[in-house]
Design goal:
The protein has helices at 24-30, 123-135, 194-203, 221-239, 261-273, 288-297, 304-318, 363-378, 453-468; strands at residues 3-10, 42-46, 56-62, 69-70, 75-80, 85-89, 94-99, 106-108, 112-117, 143-150, 278-286, 340-342, 344-346, 349-351, 354-355, 392-396, 415-419, 423-428, 434-447. It has 475 residues and is an alpha+beta fold. A ten-stranded antiparallel sheet has the order 4-7-9-2-1-10-6-5-3-8. Strands 11, 12, 15, 16, 17, 18 and 19 form a seven-stranded mixed sheet that branches. Strands 13-14 form a two-stranded antiparallel ribbon. α7 (304-318) crosses α8. The radius of gyration is 26 Å and the shape is elongated.
Length: 475
Amino acid sequence: MAHLLNTSFLPSSSALHRKPIFPPSFRAASGNRARTQIQAKIREIFMPALSSTMTEGKIVSWVKSEGDKLSKGESVVVVESDKADMDVETFYDGFLAAIMVEEGGLAAVGSPIALLAETEDEIEQAKSKAGTSSSSSSSPPHAAELTSSSSPEPQSEKVPDNVGPIPEVKAAPSVAVASSHPASEGGKRIVASPYAKKLAKELKVDLGRIVGSGPLGRIVSKDVEAAAVTAASSAAAVGGADAAGGKSAAIEWGSVVPFTTMQSAVSRNMVESLAVPTFRVGYTITTDALDALYKKIKSKGVTMTALLAKATALALVKHPVINSGCRDGKSFTYNSSINIAVAVAIDGGLITPVLQDADKVDIYSLSRKWKELVDKARAKQLQPHEYNTGTFTLSNLGMFGVDRFDAILPPGTGAIMAVGASEPTVVATKDGRIGMKSQMQVNVTADHRVIYGADLASFLQTLSKIIEDPKDLTF
């Protein structure tokens, strides 16, 4: 899915008499700022809106350096939105004249991050005006567009067979092979971003022993940070540092760490959620039959996540009000599709990949899709429709041995279900005997403006019946 990033001309005085032509989204972002006139054909490159909730983006790495020639379709910069990293590609030939936001820097959506010159002669002129242009820019007389695509996909990781927040185990960067960027001239020159080089010097990290994760193997700041953490952890392991206190060598205790872009987005959503009047209903479900089915079909690639998502979707078919959502506080929508979002913990935040039409997709295809979504989530390559179209959310901490917890309702949805661990439990049978059954606790948090207690109770009864007799899950 392509996303549009805006560029605009910095006009000459004669151009100011022409009628402005630019996307509505940019008008809202740029306001009525006064523009410095530049007698050259120079374009401003603006921070794109990569998702509906994005208000600012972070520059992960500049693929090109100042003065580099650009051809249409080439990647220029990697931008981190609140959900994913995206490569930004140019629609125009020219030269990257001036970088206005360095790697690691934040910029509001619609604000300029660089200048693009049409000819090499205009580079110096653009550089001299970069500071002024970044602080006083307004609606451009002509708008051009750049497009963005997913950054190169790293090697897939094996997905644990569980639901919800899946802790990511970050692989330690290799320390034996140098960057293999095509511009490295056979390994003679280290290809790294300017910010990565600066950071490496500060952290005393040898760039020659790092494999870059940026476009075409370029070393970016996060590679340097990961190498520094690995080196510190190794030193602590050898020297026994902090063994008595139990403190991690990778964390500077007492330090203040600003939110990442994703953490900021999660924070905004959670604060918004607290404005919704919610209530909670818990239920105990016996999972013996589901566990038996899982053991039977696990070898065919079926995951427990897919089984629970499928069971939930089939229950929602019979209780559409639980699948509804309220946005404006005045009405609610019966969603036309049942899209199960599943919370996944990734490095630096939380995201909810969506299994779309989970009630209609067979369990084998659903499992394959889930593995694909988790790989993309960990690589921060999910497209907006893969994480913002959920109509009901599952969150699970059962893999950590948590038996019950409450989840916060995502904005605009009707309900979220918190799933605890399935554990052997001593229970009384209907004939008065004592038996052993595997049971799990689920707690549903719902929007009380739309959903009422009886609605949730009925939904949970249906879900329990499906899980305790799961024959319909494989059809």
